[in-house]
Amino acid sequence: MSDQNTYGSTMLSNEEREMVRDLILLPYIDTMVGKSIEEIERSGNMLKQTYLLAGRYVQQRIMQDMLKLKQELKRRNIKVVDDANEDFLLYYLIYFRGYQERFGMTRDVMRTQISLRLTEYTAELGGVLKDNLK
Question: Where are the domains of the chain?
Fold first, then answer.
């Protein structure tokens, strides 16, 4: 019998770890997209409005995902708190079901995961646009 898939487990499941990782990364992604939107707003680019719509769509999806993650983690009695930032590592404390665990990510891993997640949002937007152009 595996304790990893039950909510009463003394360990976080892989799915829960991914949820925690995503909850940590999404605010960084939102900040990056927000900065890009600000740059676009200041530009004189002909397609400025199109880029702004795309950026705002991605930001809206990020907010939806953050809300869902917060709700699901709360439902599972999991809380994530900033712990410490070192040169190349960011640490968080995860409180879950009466236990505590320290969770760390290197900046390189964060960059890679952010890039992958942005690619997912961009692909999703591309799919929405393609469906609307039919």
Answer: 3-122
Burial class from Cβ neighbours inside 10 Å (0-12, 13-18, 19+) for residue 118 reads: middle
- Predicted local confidence at residue 86, as pLDDT: 85
Q: H or E stretch including 96?
A: strand 89-96
Cα dist. 77→39, 89, 95, 98, 108 in Å?
Answer: 39, 26, 8, 9, 29
Residues of the chain with pLDDT under 70: 1-9
Q: What separation in angstroms does the CA of 119 have from each of 2, 5, 7, 30, 58?
A: 34, 29, 31, 14, 10
